[in-house]
Amino acid sequence: MTHPSLTSWVGSANGHPDFPLQNLPLGIFSRPGGQPCGGVAIGDRILDLTTALGAGLFRGDAAIAAEAASGECLNPFFALPPPLRLALRQALQTLLRQGSEQQPAMTALGDTLLVPRADCDLHLPARVGDYTDFYVGIHHARNVGALFRPDQPLLPNYKYVPVGYHGRASTVCVSGTPVRRPHGQTLPPGHDRPIFGPCQRLDYELELGVWIGPGNVMGEPIAIAEAGQHMAGVCLLNDWSARDVQAWEYQPLGPFLAKNFATSVSPWVVTAEALAPFRRAQPPRPDGDPQPLPYLLDATDQATGALDIRLEVLLLTQAMRAHGLAPERLAVSSTLNMYWTIAQLIAHHSAGGCRLQPGDLFGSGTLSGAQPDAVGSLLESTLGGQRALTLANGEQRTFLLDGDEVILRARCYCEGYPSIGLGECRGLVLPAR
Ligand code: MN
Questions:
Q1: What are the structural domains, with CATH classification, of the chain?
Q2: pLDDT, tens digit, for every residue of 337-372?
Q3: CA dihedral in degrees (216, 218, 224, 227; nearest 10)?
Q4: Greater confidence, 375 or 2?
Q5: Residues with Cβ within 8 Å of residue 170, at least 6 apart in sequence
Q6: Residue 333 pairs with which residues in a beta bridge?
Q7: What pLDDT sits at residue 2?
Q8: pLDDT per residue as tens digits for the range 226-262
Q9: Separation of 238 CA from ligand 1 center, angstroms?
Q10: What is the CA(134)–ligand 1 centre distance, in A?
Q11: What per-residue confidence (pLDDT) applies to 396?
Q12: Is 16 a catalytic site residue?
């Protein structure tokens, strides 16, 4: 764990709510007209790893890791064992801390080394080989289940199996990419045959994204005790959902076109190492719930495998934008609402022999909390569209309208330590074509 009082000679890092010296998330960026390449967020700057390597700022393991993170995607970096990731983190903190011996040399490189973040475009951090979306937000599962099965909101498998489905990797897109309202088949109320047309019930899902680090060999499951070592880092993830399409198509095999048109992720990868101060014990299961089966149960994972990340959803409508209003917060939740730890997701995913690869992406599932102001989808907050939300400017929403922008934010707080943030995951809804 990085010392909480460590500060940087990059002035904007100190007191920065997301990107102080204690965070150092990695991402892929480009300068205007430039090629995508790897960098590290520090305050309002991006440290260009290629420039840093060229200046000879890294040695040994840190140089190997910097090289792996300096290209056009982070997959080679994700493939590294955690000690190499840690070596890069420690080298960056030595270089960037107040009083660093390298400060004069680094300052002399100016904007070639420390690029103003506002001038850059951010890209998908990795080539996503496979994307899997889970359903571990138990309050979401219960809220949604209650809409369809008031007498049995949670199905009998929920507390035994980390429920998930294989999603679509090709339409994972970076924050800021507009999302076109999808077409699909729906069965409108009162009809006995479906129609094909634009989705009328477009929704967001507030999720944690998990970037998979080192993979496994096909047929060789990852044991629960080692599973935590296979997480490279986290991001925010919006699992855009066409609820009317979903309702008609999802049985018996689960989501298809309702989910495969877009999944947005935030650009910065907050590493497992940066998250260490925000690890918590997995919240105890309520009395009467079964214990996880042995292949999903590990004492260390139960003691330290949860993350305490505060999550927010905000909405910026076209009218709010036109009147210069700030986005309105719709919900605040937490990753402590996960019924399963990330290590349990990794162990379960590979338990049958499935091969995970560096750059695979997991979504946690919608992370609603127990309170009414903590729900991570409109499906829940409007009770399936039956009760409209009234926004502060008087507008109403049951589902998303064209011109709405959904903004996810996340930050970690703990007493006596600087906050670190995941940044934002934004997406603007475009009209159907
Ligand atoms: Mn989802």
A1: 11-123 (2.30.30.230), 131-430 (3.90.850.10)
A2: 999 999 999 999 999 999 999 999 999 999 999 999
A3: 20
A4: 375
A5: none
A6: 311
A7: 79
A8: 999 999 999 999 999 999 999 999 999 999 999 999 9
A9: 8
A10: 7
A11: 98
A12: no
CA of 222 to the centre of ligand 1 (A): 24
Q: How far is CA 131 from CA 126, 161, 336, 349, 361, in A?
A: 12, 18, 22, 12, 5
pLDDT in tens, 52-101: 999 999 999 999 999 999 999 999 999 999 999 999 999 999 999 999 99
Instruction: Tell me, in angstroms, the distance from the centre of ligand 1 to residue 205's CA.
Output: 6
Expressed in angstroms and rounded, the spacing between residue 34 Cα and the centre of ligand 1 is: 34
What is the 175 CA–ligand 1 centroid distance (Å)? 17
Exactly one of 139, 140, 230, 349 is catalytic; name it: 140
What are the pLDDT digits (tens) for 137-150? 999 999 999 998 99
> Going by C-beta distance under 8 Å and a sequence separation of 6 or more, which residues neighbour residue 25?
19, 40, 41, 233, 268, 269, 270, 271, 274, 422, 423
Q: Tokens for 209, please give them.
A: 């994204």
**C-alpha span between 354 and 350 (Å, rounded):** 5
